[in-house]
Amino acid sequence: METIALVGNPNSGKTTLFNALTGANQKTGNYAGVTVSRVSGVLRTPHGSKFELLDLPGCYSLSPNSADERITRDVLLGDQEGAELPEAVICVVDASNLERHLYLVLQVIDLGLPVVLALNKVDLAERQGIRINVEFLSKELGIPVVACQANKGKGVLDIKHAMRHPFPQIASRKWSADEKVERGIAELATRLKSENVKNPGAHAIHLLADSVYRAEPQPGIKHGVQKVATEVVESVIGDRSGPDESISRARTKRVQEICKLAARRQEAGGLTQSDRIDSVLLHPILGWVIFAFFMLLVFWTIFRVAEYPMGLVDGAVGALSDWVSGMMSEGDVRDLIVDGIIAGVGSVVIFLPQILLLLFFIGLMETTGYMSRAAFLMDNLMSKVGLSGKAFLPLLSSYACAIPGIMATRTMDSAKQRLLTIMIAPWMSCTARLPVYALLIGMLLAGQGAMVQALVLAGLYLLGTVTAFIAAWLLAPKVKGTEEVAHFMMELPAYTVPDFKYIMRHLLERAWSFIYKAGTVIMGICIILWALQTYPKPKEGTPAAENASLALEQSYMGKIGHGIEPVVKPLGYDWRTGTALVAAFAAREVFNSSLAISYSVDEDAYEEGDDFLAQLRAQMAAATWPDGRPVYTPLTTLSLLIFFVYALQCLPTTAVVKRETGSWKWALGQLGAMSAFAWLAAFAVFQIGSLFI
Q1: Which residue(s) pair with 267 in the sheet?
Q2: Residues 379, 401: Cα–Cα separation, whole Å
Q3: pLDDT digit string (tens) for 354-388?
């Protein structure tokens, strides 16, 4: 299947167009030898042709500053291992930022591939008083130009029509540099052809336009080829520093000439609607107030609004449990299914509505354009602790899950800044902590309203974030050395109506991912936990045979728990809690499942209508030490919350850190340091608190 590459600047709507062109026919993998994701889908044209559409990472130019941008450059030049040179390119530009985005278009045209320009967000450009002459733009660039509105599906069919066979004719280069540089390009292309370099014309231009590409080792480029380019620079062009600036000026001048004639702005100099909104949302005082209010609204919604769908999920789990109990006779198999699998998995699935609500709000921020404004607000604060403003988006993504947050650091141009961001990302409270927070906050603040619980939840998120920033401030001199903090530069996209189609697609993907995890990893752990707390069974006639608590204590889980208890007892936890903590290192959500299995609920002991959380909290509240003292005091519960704020209880995250840093030293060091810090913080809370209670 032939490949078409999809390229464009960040915030150009490239991903939205990719989804519109491919629908659900998408797959994700990794490029050979690197950790950057390879996202592709099937594009079917009205003419019956079928292509693989490759969604390349967003970039501002083909002179990269990050791992993601390097992948885009190498794929388009044919240098990426395991990736064939695309047959054609669809280049997406934001019509409201035409001048800024056309620079990349000229670079793509230089590659000598068939190119179709997707002029996206034309509606936004019109609202800003920008009128673009599509026919003139197509004539000046020498490529097909299709006006579209990807989020509404407008123009998508026209783009598919443009990808008919044979592909559009290859356009010639649209800029020219001074005479020496032009002579150097021609000379280098000839010599590269004799060296059997594929696509010699494109490589010649890029070797002369990018001194880093010419000097540093590159995949698919032999050192001898770089040496030839250096010789041409010195002998033909006569400039040891390189013709980079000359080529850049030539491209920029051509972009300005095209935009001056193809794009006209009415009411030049007037404020756009986005400018007027920014005057409020980016205000140095009011902007922070609005940001704080929005975050508080998110946490209140997670507790208050999520109650209703959580009740429905809980009812469904209870009905399934009753149905299975009625269908099967008593025995270990029924106990495994009802008390192990259904109770364990159900104790995690019940929190799916809260997780999806958090992801919904993050999706709103992304699709409306507010995410970039939040990053802008945070830049000044983050620079004071040694972080680049580019770290904001990976850290914010880590509130959903640390794994994609850590992977998002690939867009950072500084390797040291990237490492520093990876080290603190797990302290952003991910959605996997929400089930634990909801359980424990409900115990700690029983009878309090949703607003009070939301404030405490917001406080936990703030505590993790503030600690992460302090850790970054302490680690920055050691990780970055004398490297200066790069100031944050990013495009502020115009505000748009939320793309609910994109948000719902994202939510469905995450919901399925969560349910799949609950049905595989978590269910497997629940089965193991049930077996550990069931076997060995006490002998008939012994006290343990008549007492479930004694039977549990004599089980394998009880023995493991008692072995762990000396480590966790100084934190205020008993052996059951210690066992749940260890199990949670596989997945934090398992903490609730482990407790649900350990504190098996006696249905006859509770009034009909009590939900799962109420029953589990009641069992936990009734748990006592051998001397009759309650296990879960408010101080113990607070200690547990602090432990979960700081502990890196996610072995998959450790595996991803190893993959992204290429070192087990950093991955295991992070796991050990965060676990030790969590223990010390929980120890301090419990022991110091005990002095005053």
Answers
A1: none
A2: 22
A3: 778 877 887 888 788 887 788 788 777 787 888 87
Q: Which two tokens stand for residue 167?
A: 């592909």
Q: Going by DSSP bridges, is the β-strand pair 37-44/145-147 parallel, antiparallel, or unpaired?
A: unpaired
The pLDDT of residue 616: 82
Q: Kindly report the pTM of this predicted structure.
A: 0.66
Residue 643 makes CB contacts below 8 A (sequence gap 6+) with 571, 581, 678, 679, 681, 682
**Which H or E run includes 147?**
strand 145-147
Give CA separation, 625 vs 458, 544, 629, 631, 632, in Å: 32, 18, 5, 6, 10
Helix or strand holding residue 678 (H, E) = helix 664-692
In angstroms, rounded to a whole number, what is the distance separating the alpha carbons of residues 232 and 223?
A: 14
220 CB-contact burial (10 Å; exposed 0-12 / middle 13-18 / buried 19+): middle
- With CA atoms as reference, report the closest residue to 111 among 175, 51, 181, 171: 171
CA-based nearest residue to 96, from 498, 372, 495, 494: 494
Give the CA distances from residue 199 to residues 86, 216, 217, in Å, rounded to whole numbers and listed in that order. 12, 20, 19
Asked if residue 412 has pLDDT above 70, the reply is: yes
- d(C-alpha 644, C-alpha 585), whole Å: 11
As a whole number, mean pLDDT of residues 657-662 equals 82
Q: What are φ and ψ of residue 41, in 5° steps?
A: -150, 175
Name residue 437's amino acid. Answer: Y
Measured CA to CA, the distance from residue 557 to residue 569 in angstroms comes to: 17
| Of 683 and 627, the one with more pLDDT | 683
| 330 residue type, one letter | E
Residues 6 or more apart from 446 whose CB is under 8 A from it?
A: 617
Q: How far apart, in Å, are the Cα atoms of 629 and each of 594, 632, 633, 644?
A: 22, 9, 9, 24
> Would you list the DSSP string of 512-544?
HHHHHHIIIIIHHHHHHHHHHHH-SPPPTTSHH
Tell me which residue has tokens 């696509």: 199
User: Which pairing describes strands 50-55 and 3-8: parallel, antiparallel, or unpaired?
Assistant: parallel
